[in-house]
From TrEMBL:
Oligomer and partners: Monomer.
Superkingdom per UniProt: Bacteria
Organism encoding this protein: Neolewinella lacunae
Protein name: Epoxyqueuosine reductase
Names of required cofactors: [4Fe-4S] cluster; cob(II)alamin
Amino acid sequence: MLPSQRATLVKNIAHELGFAFVGIARAERMDEEARRLEAWLRQGRHGAMHWMENHFELRTDPTKLVPGAKSVVSLLYNYFPADDSLSREAPKISRYAYGEDYHRVVRDKLRTLFHRLEESLGAAIDGRVFVDSAPVLERDWAKRAGVGWTGKNTLLINPRAGSYFFLAELISDLDLAPDTQIKDYCGTCTACIDACPTEAISPEGYLLDGSKCISYLTIELREAIPAEFAGRMEGWAFGCDICQEVCPWNRFSTPHAEPAFAPHPDLPALSPREMREMTEEVFQRVFQKSAVKRTKFTGLRRNIDFLED
Protein backbone atom coordinates (compact mmCIF):
# COMPACT_ATOMS: atom_id res chain seq x y z
CA MET A 1 0.00 0.00 0.00
CA LEU A 2 1.34 3.43 -0.94
CA PRO A 3 1.80 6.20 1.69
CA SER A 4 -1.08 8.12 0.09
CA GLN A 5 -3.35 5.06 0.31
CA ARG A 6 -2.44 4.50 3.95
CA ALA A 7 -3.16 8.17 4.65
CA THR A 8 -6.59 7.85 3.06
CA LEU A 9 -7.28 4.73 5.14
CA VAL A 10 -6.38 6.55 8.35
CA LYS A 11 -8.64 9.47 7.49
CA ASN A 12 -11.57 7.29 6.45
CA ILE A 13 -11.54 5.30 9.68
CA ALA A 14 -11.08 8.43 11.78
CA HIS A 15 -14.05 10.11 10.11
CA GLU A 16 -16.15 6.99 10.72
CA LEU A 17 -15.29 7.29 14.42
CA GLY A 18 -16.53 10.86 14.53
CA PHE A 19 -13.38 12.93 14.11
CA ALA A 20 -14.28 16.03 12.12
CA PHE A 21 -10.88 16.80 10.60
CA VAL A 22 -7.72 14.76 10.14
CA GLY A 23 -4.32 15.86 8.91
CA ILE A 24 -0.85 14.34 8.68
CA ALA A 25 2.65 15.74 9.25
CA ARG A 26 6.08 14.19 9.08
CA ALA A 27 7.50 13.18 12.45
CA GLU A 28 10.56 15.36 12.96
CA ARG A 29 12.06 17.68 15.54
CA MET A 30 10.24 21.01 15.76
CA ASP A 31 13.16 23.44 15.79
CA GLU A 32 11.24 26.70 15.36
CA GLU A 33 8.54 25.67 17.82
CA ALA A 34 11.23 24.59 20.30
CA ARG A 35 12.81 28.04 20.24
CA ARG A 36 9.43 29.68 20.74
CA LEU A 37 8.52 27.39 23.64
CA GLU A 38 11.88 27.96 25.29
CA ALA A 39 11.41 31.74 25.14
CA TRP A 40 7.84 31.47 26.46
CA LEU A 41 8.99 29.40 29.43
CA ARG A 42 11.95 31.69 30.10
CA GLN A 43 9.54 34.64 30.31
CA GLY A 44 7.51 32.77 32.94
CA ARG A 45 4.29 32.92 30.95
CA HIS A 46 3.36 29.42 32.13
CA GLY A 47 2.76 30.70 35.66
CA ALA A 48 2.63 27.89 38.21
CA MET A 49 2.41 25.18 35.53
CA HIS A 50 5.96 24.05 36.30
CA TRP A 51 5.32 20.69 34.65
CA MET A 52 5.59 22.47 31.31
CA GLU A 53 9.31 22.88 31.93
CA ASN A 54 9.74 19.10 32.06
CA HIS A 55 10.48 16.74 29.16
CA PHE A 56 11.44 19.53 26.78
CA GLU A 57 12.95 17.17 24.20
CA LEU A 58 9.89 14.95 24.29
CA ARG A 59 7.68 17.96 23.61
CA THR A 60 9.67 19.07 20.61
CA ASP A 61 10.67 15.76 19.02
CA PRO A 62 8.04 13.04 18.45
CA THR A 63 10.74 10.47 17.70
CA LYS A 64 11.73 10.74 21.38
CA LEU A 65 8.18 9.82 22.38
CA VAL A 66 7.89 7.07 19.76
CA PRO A 67 11.29 5.85 18.53
CA GLY A 68 11.16 5.22 14.81
CA ALA A 69 8.12 7.45 14.32
CA LYS A 70 7.52 8.57 10.74
CA SER A 71 4.22 10.45 10.98
CA VAL A 72 2.04 12.49 13.29
CA VAL A 73 -1.69 12.25 12.64
CA SER A 74 -3.61 15.21 14.09
CA LEU A 75 -7.32 14.79 14.71
CA LEU A 76 -10.05 17.27 15.71
CA TYR A 77 -13.12 16.21 17.68
CA ASN A 78 -16.01 18.67 17.91
CA TYR A 79 -17.40 19.64 21.33
CA PHE A 80 -19.57 22.66 20.50
CA PRO A 81 -22.92 22.18 22.31
CA ALA A 82 -26.35 22.76 20.81
CA ASP A 83 -27.34 24.51 24.04
CA ASP A 84 -24.58 26.64 25.51
CA SER A 85 -26.64 28.37 28.18
CA LEU A 86 -24.25 27.11 30.88
CA SER A 87 -21.73 29.58 29.49
CA ARG A 88 -24.05 32.58 29.45
CA GLU A 89 -24.93 33.28 33.07
CA ALA A 90 -22.59 33.30 36.04
CA PRO A 91 -21.19 31.14 37.46
CA LYS A 92 -20.17 30.08 33.93
CA ILE A 93 -18.66 26.79 32.80
CA SER A 94 -16.52 26.40 29.69
CA ARG A 95 -18.30 24.54 26.92
CA TYR A 96 -15.71 21.78 26.75
CA ALA A 97 -16.58 20.64 30.28
CA TYR A 98 -20.35 20.22 29.94
CA GLY A 99 -20.31 16.46 29.53
CA GLU A 100 -18.01 13.57 30.32
CA ASP A 101 -14.27 14.12 30.54
CA TYR A 102 -12.94 14.35 27.00
CA HIS A 103 -9.72 12.53 27.91
CA ARG A 104 -11.56 9.23 28.26
CA VAL A 105 -14.07 9.76 25.45
CA VAL A 106 -11.54 10.76 22.80
CA ARG A 107 -8.86 8.35 23.99
CA ASP A 108 -11.26 5.43 23.58
CA LYS A 109 -11.89 6.49 19.99
CA LEU A 110 -8.16 6.80 19.36
CA ARG A 111 -7.57 3.29 20.63
CA THR A 112 -10.32 2.00 18.36
CA LEU A 113 -8.68 3.84 15.45
CA PHE A 114 -5.34 2.26 16.29
CA HIS A 115 -6.74 -1.29 16.43
CA ARG A 116 -8.80 -0.90 13.27
CA LEU A 117 -5.74 0.34 11.41
CA GLU A 118 -3.78 -2.71 12.52
CA GLU A 119 -6.61 -4.97 11.38
CA SER A 120 -6.91 -3.20 8.01
CA LEU A 121 -3.18 -3.24 7.38
CA GLY A 122 -2.71 -6.77 8.67
CA ALA A 123 0.34 -5.76 10.68
CA ALA A 124 1.26 -4.37 14.07
CA ILE A 125 1.81 -0.63 14.36
CA ASP A 126 4.49 0.81 16.60
CA GLY A 127 2.88 3.95 17.93
CA ARG A 128 1.04 5.81 20.66
CA VAL A 129 -2.13 7.89 20.90
CA PHE A 130 -2.46 11.14 22.82
CA VAL A 131 -5.21 13.51 23.89
CA ASP A 132 -3.88 16.30 26.09
CA SER A 133 -2.14 13.63 28.15
CA ALA A 134 1.57 13.80 27.34
CA PRO A 135 4.25 16.32 26.36
CA VAL A 136 2.93 16.90 22.84
CA LEU A 137 2.65 20.34 21.19
CA GLU A 138 -0.82 19.61 19.92
CA ARG A 139 -1.66 22.92 18.26
CA ASP A 140 1.69 23.07 16.51
CA TRP A 141 1.23 19.57 15.11
CA ALA A 142 -2.33 20.35 14.02
CA LYS A 143 -1.01 23.43 12.24
CA ARG A 144 1.71 21.40 10.52
CA ALA A 145 -0.87 18.80 9.54
CA GLY A 146 -2.99 21.42 7.80
CA VAL A 147 -6.19 21.11 9.86
CA GLY A 148 -6.07 24.75 10.94
CA TRP A 149 -3.88 27.72 11.75
CA THR A 150 -2.85 29.13 15.11
CA GLY A 151 -5.01 32.17 15.72
CA LYS A 152 -4.12 35.38 17.51
CA ASN A 153 -5.70 33.87 20.63
CA THR A 154 -3.16 30.98 20.21
CA LEU A 155 -5.97 28.45 19.65
CA LEU A 156 -6.20 26.31 16.55
CA ILE A 157 -8.80 27.63 14.09
CA ASN A 158 -10.27 25.59 11.28
CA PRO A 159 -11.65 27.74 8.43
CA ARG A 160 -14.69 25.50 7.99
CA ALA A 161 -15.69 25.00 11.60
CA GLY A 162 -13.96 27.37 14.02
CA SER A 163 -12.11 26.35 17.18
CA TYR A 164 -14.39 24.36 19.46
CA PHE A 165 -12.43 21.14 19.07
CA PHE A 166 -10.43 18.72 21.18
CA LEU A 167 -7.07 17.93 19.62
CA ALA A 168 -5.64 14.42 19.52
CA GLU A 169 -2.67 12.67 17.93
CA LEU A 170 -1.50 9.32 16.65
CA ILE A 171 2.29 9.17 16.44
CA SER A 172 3.53 6.03 14.76
CA ASP A 173 5.97 4.32 12.43
CA LEU A 174 3.39 4.37 9.63
CA ASP A 175 4.73 5.96 6.46
CA LEU A 176 1.89 8.33 5.52
CA ALA A 177 1.67 11.01 2.87
CA PRO A 178 1.78 14.39 4.68
CA ASP A 179 -0.70 17.21 4.17
CA THR A 180 0.05 20.84 3.40
CA GLN A 181 -0.21 23.64 5.93
CA ILE A 182 -2.89 26.26 5.37
CA LYS A 183 -2.44 30.02 5.61
CA ASP A 184 -3.36 32.23 8.54
CA TYR A 185 -6.73 33.93 8.01
CA CYS A 186 -6.86 36.11 11.14
CA GLY A 187 -5.95 39.12 9.04
CA THR A 188 -6.35 42.46 10.81
CA CYS A 189 -8.99 41.15 13.25
CA THR A 190 -8.26 41.87 16.93
CA ALA A 191 -11.58 40.69 18.42
CA CYS A 192 -9.98 38.17 20.80
CA ILE A 193 -7.31 40.64 21.93
CA ASP A 194 -9.84 43.37 22.59
CA ALA A 195 -12.27 41.09 24.43
CA CYS A 196 -9.88 39.41 26.89
CA PRO A 197 -10.71 40.99 30.27
CA THR A 198 -7.38 40.06 31.87
CA GLU A 199 -5.24 41.15 28.89
CA ALA A 200 -3.74 37.68 28.64
CA ILE A 201 -3.25 37.98 24.87
CA SER A 202 -0.44 40.25 23.71
CA PRO A 203 -1.45 43.39 21.77
CA GLU A 204 -0.02 41.89 18.59
CA GLY A 205 -1.65 38.51 19.19
CA TYR A 206 -0.15 35.03 18.83
CA LEU A 207 1.30 35.17 22.35
CA LEU A 208 -0.61 34.20 25.49
CA ASP A 209 0.48 34.96 29.03
CA GLY A 210 -0.89 31.81 30.58
CA SER A 211 -0.56 33.23 34.08
CA LYS A 212 -3.24 35.84 33.23
CA CYS A 213 -5.66 33.54 31.39
CA ILE A 214 -8.97 32.95 33.17
CA SER A 215 -8.81 29.25 32.30
CA TYR A 216 -5.47 29.05 34.08
CA LEU A 217 -6.72 31.02 37.07
CA THR A 218 -9.81 28.84 37.52
CA ILE A 219 -8.31 25.43 36.71
CA GLU A 220 -4.51 25.23 36.86
CA LEU A 221 -3.78 27.66 39.69
CA ARG A 222 -3.99 25.92 43.05
CA GLU A 223 -3.32 28.95 45.23
CA ALA A 224 -5.65 31.88 45.81
CA ILE A 225 -6.54 33.86 42.69
CA PRO A 226 -4.53 37.12 42.79
CA ALA A 227 -6.55 40.14 43.88
CA GLU A 228 -5.57 42.02 40.72
CA PHE A 229 -8.11 39.89 38.81
CA ALA A 230 -11.07 40.76 41.02
CA GLY A 231 -13.94 42.08 38.94
CA ARG A 232 -12.27 40.91 35.72
CA MET A 233 -13.39 37.27 35.55
CA GLU A 234 -16.60 37.99 33.58
CA GLY A 235 -18.49 35.41 35.62
CA TRP A 236 -16.33 32.40 34.67
CA ALA A 237 -16.10 29.76 37.42
CA PHE A 238 -14.43 27.01 35.36
CA GLY A 239 -12.45 27.79 32.24
CA CYS A 240 -13.24 30.60 29.82
CA ASP A 241 -14.52 30.82 26.24
CA ILE A 242 -14.41 34.58 25.67
CA CYS A 243 -11.75 34.57 22.95
CA GLN A 244 -13.69 31.85 21.14
CA GLU A 245 -17.07 33.51 21.58
CA VAL A 246 -15.88 36.67 19.81
CA CYS A 247 -13.91 34.90 17.07
CA PRO A 248 -15.65 35.45 13.71
CA TRP A 249 -14.64 31.99 12.54
CA ASN A 250 -16.82 30.36 15.18
CA ARG A 251 -19.91 31.47 13.30
CA PHE A 252 -19.25 28.23 11.41
CA SER A 253 -19.39 26.08 14.56
CA THR A 254 -22.01 23.35 14.47
CA PRO A 255 -23.33 21.23 17.37
CA HIS A 256 -21.47 18.03 18.13
CA ALA A 257 -23.09 14.60 17.85
CA GLU A 258 -21.36 12.97 20.82
CA PRO A 259 -23.82 11.66 23.45
CA ALA A 260 -21.07 11.54 26.08
CA PHE A 261 -20.69 15.31 25.85
CA ALA A 262 -24.27 15.98 26.92
CA PRO A 263 -24.32 17.57 30.40
CA HIS A 264 -25.39 15.62 33.45
CA PRO A 265 -29.22 15.88 33.60
CA ASP A 266 -29.06 17.84 36.86
CA LEU A 267 -26.61 20.44 35.58
CA PRO A 268 -28.85 22.50 33.26
CA ALA A 269 -31.53 22.46 35.97
CA LEU A 270 -29.29 24.23 38.48
CA SER A 271 -30.13 27.90 38.83
CA PRO A 272 -27.31 30.45 39.19
CA ARG A 273 -28.17 30.68 42.87
CA GLU A 274 -28.00 26.89 43.28
CA MET A 275 -24.64 26.91 41.52
CA ARG A 276 -23.35 29.53 43.93
CA GLU A 277 -24.68 27.57 46.93
CA MET A 278 -23.61 24.16 45.65
CA THR A 279 -22.68 21.56 48.26
CA GLU A 280 -19.95 19.00 47.86
CA GLU A 281 -22.59 16.27 47.56
CA VAL A 282 -24.16 18.01 44.57
CA PHE A 283 -20.72 18.64 43.06
CA GLN A 284 -19.81 14.96 43.26
CA ARG A 285 -23.09 13.90 41.69
CA VAL A 286 -23.21 16.44 38.86
CA PHE A 287 -19.52 16.52 37.94
CA GLN A 288 -18.46 12.95 38.71
CA LYS A 289 -17.56 12.29 35.06
CA SER A 290 -16.82 15.85 33.99
CA ALA A 291 -13.50 17.63 33.50
CA VAL A 292 -14.76 20.05 36.18
CA LYS A 293 -13.76 17.49 38.79
CA ARG A 294 -10.16 18.41 38.05
CA THR A 295 -10.52 21.60 40.06
CA LYS A 296 -12.19 19.67 42.89
CA PHE A 297 -15.05 21.03 44.97
CA THR A 298 -12.74 23.30 46.94
CA GLY A 299 -11.37 24.80 43.72
CA LEU A 300 -14.79 25.46 42.22
CA ARG A 301 -15.94 26.90 45.55
CA ARG A 302 -12.90 29.20 45.56
CA ASN A 303 -13.67 30.37 42.02
CA ILE A 304 -17.33 31.06 42.74
CA ASP A 305 -16.49 32.89 45.96
CA PHE A 306 -13.96 35.01 44.06
CA LEU A 307 -16.70 36.05 41.64
CA GLU A 308 -18.87 37.11 44.57
CA ASP A 309 -16.20 39.21 46.29
